[in-house]
Design a protein that fits this description.
The chain has 552 residues and is mainly β. The strands form 14 sheets. Strands 2, 3, 5, 6, 9, 10 and 11 form a seven-stranded mixed sheet that branches.
Length: 552
């Protein structure tokens, strides 16, 4: 607002003196004067019009307006026959903007003679632009109050101005468009009286300059609403709640409220519009207003869901299947569910008992996980939907502990043949599990690997047999101290090469004549065994004995 000016323009007067001897325009030099004031004050966002009277002698006259800002001169006005130039204060860098401290002057040219040499130049006029910041009202959001009551104190942050003395004026409106001053409300804060209809409020900041001129700016507006009817609402969707829900009831449309639950007074009468409680059953919540005719009730519905209980805590091996079972059925609305009510159940899993996720396909009374590789908690939710409101109740949780993943490893040695008098090789294993909770047991088999038996006291990572009396297969079992999990390494075969000398028949030495045939010497075998008998024939000649070995 700029109260000292009836219109927002300057008149740019061109006062010129034409020499008598130079009747033609091209030879004239004009002394142009710009306006009547050297300094002009405007409010921010005002429109300023520079009016240049039309030069009377020729249509070849052009006008030019120049701006000086921060020591830099710019051409901002028209270079055509237009004789006015409109500007707006505080538009930043725009060509037609006027900022605080800007200077403007005008030039006039005759295009018939020259477009570079002006006929005349005006003096420079400098502008002062006043900016007013109104501050921000608190609260910034609109609110609803009971009929014929005060919204309380309205306040805001401090306003500011670039010049002059700052003051305030509170205003009100019914449409947030047309505003009217509120009498005797010129302070920083304002407390309205009782409100009977929806009303907007704002605060105007006004700066008054030494000459009496004023600039102003309005703050944000806030709406104070009045309920059209006496009412009661609940925080629960569809007025339906789950066990343990904290409910808030809100009343409006009166100056006094009395809250009742199932006919019993629980709060009031007072000006407090809300009542917070936890209900344990279907209930009727009511309010009474400041007159006996102001009453309102709502029916509240409990979506009652009770959890069942489950079992199945255990320790399993890595990747093993596990099953958990419903022990006690849940209930909905006080009625126990049957095993067929699977849609009312949902298994959940968690790694920390804090964040739970549904198990895909886990809508059953029992749950089997085919392969579990990490320790996990499980629970079974009993759930139900009433009036579109979903409620659930979790069971106890069970913990499934998964033993570490075991690796049997590979025996470093290969199958080999062992003579009776030879020492067996020490057996070692690579790439097998190890650690504080890992145990070992060496085993042997003498029936080709059909059955294995533990080797007593052989629980070390490696194994060295003291002797091998027959062909034997060896392997190492790896155990986890957590759970009863085991895995075997590969096995190797140690083949015993056992050669027995046997005994000769007859058992007594005998003498024969020279060049005669000795009796048959054998091990007494018959049949097929006799075919492989080793026969020795002794020839006695003096003290020299030749031995001939004959094999069949």
């Amino acid at each position: 607002m700029h109260t000292s000016k009836l219109s927002y323009y300057l008149v740019l007067f061109f006062v010129f003196h034409v020499l008598a001897t130079q009747a033609q325009l091209g030879g004239a030099f004009l002394n142009v004067t710009f306006g009547v004031d050297d300094n002009v004050t405007y409010c921010k966002d005002e429109t300023v019009t520079l009016f240049i009277p039309t030069y009377p002698s020729s249509s070849t006259i052009e006008y030019e307006v120049r701006r000086i800002r921060g020591g830099i001169e710019q051409v901002v006005g028209p270079t055509d026959p237009s004789n006015f130039f409109t500007m707006v204060t505080d538009l930043g860098a725009a060509a037609n903007s006027v900022q605080n401290g800007d200077g403007f002057y005008a030039l006039v040219f005759d295009t018939a003679s020259s477009t570079t040499v002006p006929l005349g130049t005006s003096s420079t006029t400098y502008f002062e632009i006043i900016s007013v910041a109104p501050g921000t009202l608190s609260p910034t959001l609109s609110k609803t109050i009971p009929y014929n009551t005060s919204p309380g104190l309205l306040s805001g942050s401090d306003g500011s101005t670039t010049s002059g003395t700052l003051s305030y004026q509170w205003q009100q409106s019914t449409d947030d468009i047309t505003w009217s001053d509120i009498t005797l409300t010129t302070g920083k804060t304002y407390t309205p009286g009782p409100i009977t209809s929806n009303t907007y409020f704002r605060r105007e900041a006004i700066t008054t300059l030494p000459g009496g001129d004023q600039c102003s700016s309005g703050s944000n507006s806030i709406l104070i609403s009045i309920p059209s009817t006496f009412s009661l609402t609940s925080s629960a969707a569809s007025n339906t709640f789950c066990v343990g829900d904290v409910l808030t009831f809100t009343a409006s449309g009166s100056t006094s409220y009395e809250f009742l639950v199932n006919g019993a007074i629980v709060q009031g009468p007072s000006a407090v519009q809300t009542y917070t409680t936890v209900l344990s059953e279907d209930s009727v919540v009511s309010i009474k207003g400041d007159t006996s005719t102001k009453t309102h009730s709502i029916n509240m519905y409990l979506n009652e869901v009770q959890a069942g209980s489950v079992s199945g805590t255990q320790i399993i091996c890595y990747g093993e299947a596990v099953t958990m079972n419903l022990v006690t059925n849940g209930s909905v609305g006080g009625v126990s569910l049957t095993l067929l009510d699977t849609e009312n159940y949902q298994w959940q899993s968690s790694l920390d008992r804090i964040y739970w996720t549904d198990v895909p396909g886990g809508k059953s009374t029992d749950l089997t996980v085919t392969s579990l590789i990490s320790s996990t908690f499980f629970r079974l939710n009993t759930l139900n939907t009433l009036n579109g409101v979903y409620c659930e109740a979790p069971s106890n949780w069970v913990e499934i502990t998964v033993a570490p993943d075991l690796k049997g490893g590979v025996i470093d040695q290969s199958d080999y043949i062992l003579c009776l008098e030879d020492t067996p090789q020490e057996l070692t294993v690579s790439d097998g599990s190890s650690g504080a909770n890992i145990l070992y047991q060496w085993q042997k088999s003498t029936d080709g690997g059909a059955t294995y038996t533990d080797i007593l006291f052989e629980t070390s990572p490696s194994y060295l047999a003291t002797s091998v009396s027959e062909t034997t297969r060896f392997r190492r079992n790896t155990y986890s101290a957590v759970g009863s999990c085991t895995i075997s390494s590969n096995d190797i075969k140690v083949t015993l090469n056992d050669i027995s000398p046997g005994s000769l028949y007859p058992s007594q030495s005998s003498a024969i004549c020279y060049n005669s045939i000795p009796p048959l010497i054998s091990n007494g075998a018959t049949g097929e065994d006799a075919a492989s008998t080793i026969v020795y024939i002794f020839f006695l000649r003096l003290v020299l004995v030749w031995v001939v070995k004959i094999s069949y």
